[in-house]
Recover the amino acids of this structure.
């Protein structure tokens, strides 16, 4: 089954899903890799989570280190497929709890991700397909933690019909 | 050769290196896209078909827009074959670094050089002992050939070195490799290409494995006994049902290439290097007159 969601999603939206369903997403997604995950957890523990990360309930984290280019004080999206999700495996559950994220988008799946009771759903995007994402990103809204490097920073991306994303981990089951 | 001629030759080498970096990050060699097309025809289920269709669409979009196929523009591995009679004898490190720095900005490439101690990323793809350059001298030859292989992190992370017991090395080899591929699932971005180096020593078998990646697809090892192992492994791996991106399917591996070297009596080293389906590489050859020929 094919679903077209506009972010943020509600817990009820997730109840419509089955493994192997295909999803297209619209709205705001944020990129985060291992360094960003580590910092989210560290700052949360110190009660110093930045404001930008406090209203992300129902949104999606995209495991991605994109190529971007700075042009006249703004960033242009060049290429950005998914990175291997396994690297975030030990940090992911905590980050999902802290941010209230409902979708994890990446490649290769995650061994320890807790997807029970529609807590979060893992969506697989095709690895290596970086260029085509340029077509789906309508704008880069902002970037956080630029000091981590362009690749590890958190990019706030506005996307349109981002997909096909395959539901591969849902309610404790995976394909 | 006059100084002026030599500096013209250096300019031509710089331009050609820049061209192969652009080509190897934004275009896929034809034989590879043909193979992905073939895989698409071989698959019957909807999920692998959807993945392979998107992969082909992405190849096309990247080439049309001259942007990197994959955001991971990898570690740029350089393989240099330098003729002993080529007028410029050098390790070409400075030339390569200069061109990389420029192309990182112009294409652009992702900054993939990170200090392993401080985690700092200068975002220029160069730095200490980086990028890796492999230099080979060709005797009685007056040409210079340079190949670039952008090697992405996802596939590279699956690399393995096995120091097997010589009494069971050849028997265990296939199981060891298959086990790695099975556990890796979708992580190295299958359908993959597998390079294996058998023999030499720990570092040498890894180098052979990497060179094996660059052998043209579907070209078998010259020795029949080695070619047989390649074919057997390819068949066994394609029965694992890992499929494109690990989502199930008939095609998991596009080819297996093995290179061999003599080994120490007490050692049976096996190096394993995995390459993702987006197997990008490009090369050029330049002669002493400065004539450049490109091929992939």
């Amino acid at each position: 089954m094919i679903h077209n969601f506009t972010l943020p999603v509600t817990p009820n939206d997730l109840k419509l899903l089955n493994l192997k369903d295909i999803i297209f997403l619209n709205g705001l997604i944020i990129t985060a890799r291992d360094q960003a995950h580590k910092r989210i957890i560290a700052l949360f523990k110190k009660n110093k989570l930045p404001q930008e990360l406090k209203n992300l309930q129902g949104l999606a984290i995209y495991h991605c280190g994109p190529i971007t280019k700075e042009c006249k004080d703004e960033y242009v999206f060049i290429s950005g497929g998914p990175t291997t999700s396994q690297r975030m495996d030990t940090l992911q559950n905590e980050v999902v709890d802290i941010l209230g994220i409902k979708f994890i988008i990446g490649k290769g799946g995650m061994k320890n991700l807790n997807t029970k009771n529609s807590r979060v759903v893992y969506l697989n995007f095709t690895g290596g397909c970086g260029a085509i994402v340029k077509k789906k990103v309508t704008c880069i809204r902002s970037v956080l933690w630029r000091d981590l490097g362009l690749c590890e920073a958190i990019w706030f991306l506005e996307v349109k019909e981002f997909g096909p994303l395959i539901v591969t981990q849902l309610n404790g089951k995976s394909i | 050769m006059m100084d002026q001629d030599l500096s013209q030759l250096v300019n031509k080498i710089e331009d050609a290196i820049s061209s192969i970096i652009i080509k190897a990050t934004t275009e896929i060699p034809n034989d590879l896209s043909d193979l992905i097309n073939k895989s698409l025809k071989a698959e019957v289920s909807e999920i692998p078909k959807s993945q392979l269709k998107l992969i082909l669409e992405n190849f096309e979009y990247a080439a049309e827009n001259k942007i990197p196929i994959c955001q991971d523009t990898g570690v740029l591995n350089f393989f240099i074959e330098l003729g002993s009679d080529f007028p410029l004898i050098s390790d070409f490190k400075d030339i390569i670094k200069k061109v990389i720095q420029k192309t990182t900005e112009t294409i652009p490439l992702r900054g993939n050089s990170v200090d392993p101690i401080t985690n700092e990323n200068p975002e220029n793809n160069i730095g200490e002992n980086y990028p890796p350059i492999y230099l080979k001298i060709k005797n009685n030859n007056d040409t210079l050939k340079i190949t670039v292989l952008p090697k992405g992190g996802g596939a590279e992370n699956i690399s393995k070195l096995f120091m097997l017991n010589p009494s069971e090395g050849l028997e265990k080899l296939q199981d060891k490799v298959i086990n790695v591929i099975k556990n890796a699932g979708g992580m190295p971005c299958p359908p993959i290409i597998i390079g294996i180096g058998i023999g030499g020593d720990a570092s040498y078998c890894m180098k052979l494995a990497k060179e094996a990646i660059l052998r043209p697809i579907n070209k078998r090892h010259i020795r029949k006994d080695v070619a047989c192992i390649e074919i057997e492994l390819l068949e066994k791996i394609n029965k694992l049902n890992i499929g494109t991106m690990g989502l199930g399917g008939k095609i998991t591996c596009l080819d297996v290439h093995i290179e061999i070297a003599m080994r120490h009596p007490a050692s049976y080293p096996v190096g394993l290097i995995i390459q993702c389906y987006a197997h990008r590489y490009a090369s050029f050859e330049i002669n002493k007159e400065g004539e450049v020929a490109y091929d992939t």
